[in-house]
Amino acid sequence: MVSRTGTVPARTAPSGFRRALFAPLFAALILVSVLFSVVFALLAEEVHESATLPTDQRVLRAVDNRTASWPVSIGADIGFVASEVGIVVLGVALAGWHTIRRRWLDALLFLGAVGGYGVLTLLMKHLIQRQRPIAFFRIPESGYGFPSGHTLGATCLAFALGFALWRGGASRGLKVLCTVALLLGVIAIAMSRLILGVHYPTDVLGSLLLGTAWMSALIALRYAAEWWLVGRGKGTGGR
Known about the structure:
239 residues, 72% helix, mainly alpha
């Protein structure tokens, strides 16, 4: 109903949360999350049934042949950056930094990134129980292989960093440059796991899919929470 002054009464105005649900950005993030989740589920099923094993071995053998002369330290040093401890420490540190600046939603986003990475890695590894490619090992490694924890952690943290970057006040050129650096960093970490022979290609592919699905949903949730808080006149706590 429209009043004589031409304004919409407050009781009929849509809430911030309802606006969020119909926002194009929210819908796009949810769509990406669903699509990548479906593709990941299909891939996980194929991996569980060993249907991808011949292709995995063929690709990994090609990688091994082309990188046989490379020092092991190259892949090991890259992998160390995305180790379980490294990802958690960096993620928690960034969450703490945002907490100090009272950016509560961004702090929760980083905690959700590293927390989700940890839970999803453990859950999927024990559900799929895929053995690692021991014949290709260049360093000792233990545990199940699918998905790659290093790649999943790097993907989740890169999404969180990229989101914080594009929400910040840096120039567009710097944002693009840093985004490319984050993307190349994730690719380098994924490739390092193949060069070291501790993962099959579908292990790292699954991590990229799962990480994208998780972070797209998490960022969508963060936007919805922000719009809901704005609608309630409480600010966002994320800027």
